[in-house]
Design goal:
- This protein has about 300 residues and is an all-alpha fold.
- It has one domain (about 5-55, about 65-300).
- It is about 75% helix and about 0% strand.
- It has helices spanning about 5-30, 35-55, 65-95, 95-105, 105-120, 125-140, 155-180, 185-205, 210-215, 220-245, 250-255, 260-270, 280-295, 300.
- Helix 1 crosses helix 12 (about 260-270) and helix 8 crosses helix 10 (about 220-245).
- The protein is globular, with a radius of gyration of 19 Å.
- The two termini are about 20 Å apart.
- About 45% of the residues are buried.
Length: about 300
């Protein structure tokens, strides 16, 4: 495959990843009808970990360094646990509109962390792509501007937790790239999930013990949604994203995250019958174009 073909293929893989992540909102809505939000994260992630055990190549002798053990732990805890737990608590203490607006900071924080940790730079094309993606995402994110309460002190702690969640996602995107220099994407994913389960399991048992007791009575719809979350959300999409990260800078890949609200909105319209206005489709098209720009057109400039 030519270099140009590979870049277009990477763009296609990023679309698949963000489509799967956008479907999370619909699947979680089904799952949380019968379990708490923490257990709705723990159970499919545990299922994904079992699946990864059979697919992940074994470590070569001497490959695992002590510093990398702490790296995987930091990736799992500061990345996945922060992202999942703080968004759960934050939305409860804040407003959905606040969460939608703060989530737009993900690629920006990823770019900042990529500069600090990986020494990536922001090219002209990346700035243009990021600006277009933010504009398009604002159009289709569904933010209720009239009900926005960013300056309300009642929502301060909730907003801080949401921002910590977004920061956790950004950290995972960036720090995983450093570990990908020595490890296969499946290994990075599996060993970071070990850390997640080590921290999240006792926390969930402490805060949501009733979810464990209700497992035998979950409906087949819930089990189907859990299976989809395990295989697609915590399995396939993450593996594809990490593989793309081996070829693209973290900043380039992060811009595609602005497709998540668009795909979530589109799926809500198709699956749940919610109305999707024309302006939202236009916003999604702008984000789509910006991701193609930063993935394909930026490749030469990013390597100067």
């Amino acid at each position: 495959m030519t270099a140009s073909g590979r870049r277009w293929a990477d763009w296609g893989l990023l679309l698949i990843c963000n489509f799967i992540w956008g479907s999370q909102f619909v699947l979680v809505k089904v799952v949380q009808d019968q379990m708490g939000p923490l257990f709705a994260t723990l159970l499919p992630m545990a299922m994904a970990t079992v699946l990864l055990e059979f697919l992940t190549p074994r470590l070569r002798p001497g490959q695992l360094r002590r510093a990398d053990v702490w790296g995987f732990f930091a990736l799992g805890v500061l990345g996945q646990v922060f992202a999942q737990v703080f968004i759960t608590w934050g939305v409860r203490l804040s407003l959905a509109s606040n969460a939608a607006l703060l989530s737009l900071a993900l690629p920006v924080l990823t770019s900042l962390m990529a500069f600090l940790i990986l020494r990536e730079h922001m090219s002209r094309v990346r700035w243009i792509s990021l600006a277009l993606a933010i504009l398009g995402s604002l159009v289709c994110s569904g933010i209720d501007w009239s009900g926005l309460g960013m300056g309300d002190s009642r929502y301060l702690w909730g907003n801080l937790m949401i921002l910590l969640s977004v920061s956790g996602s950004a950290f995972y995107n960036v720090y995983s790239k450093r570990l990908l220099e020595r490890y296969d994407p499946l290994q990075v994913l599996l060993y970071s999930y070990y850390a997640v389960l080590l921290v999240l399991a006792p926390l969930t048992f402490r805060m949501e013990p009733e979810s464990f007791r209700a497992v035998p009575v979950y409906s087949w719809q819930v089990w189907g949604a859990l299976g989809a979350l395990a295989v697609l959300q915590y399995g396939l999409s993450m593996v594809l994203f990490l593989r793309v990260l081996t070829r693209l800078d973290a900043t380039q890949a992060a811009v595609s995250n602005y497709l998540i609200p668009f795909f979530g909105l589109a799926l809500a319209g198709v699956v749940l019958g919610e109305n999707v206005p024309l302006i939202a489709w236009i916003g999604g098209a702008v984000v789509l174009a910006s991701t193609a720009l930063v993935t394909v057109a930026d490749s030469r400039e990013s390597r100067e």
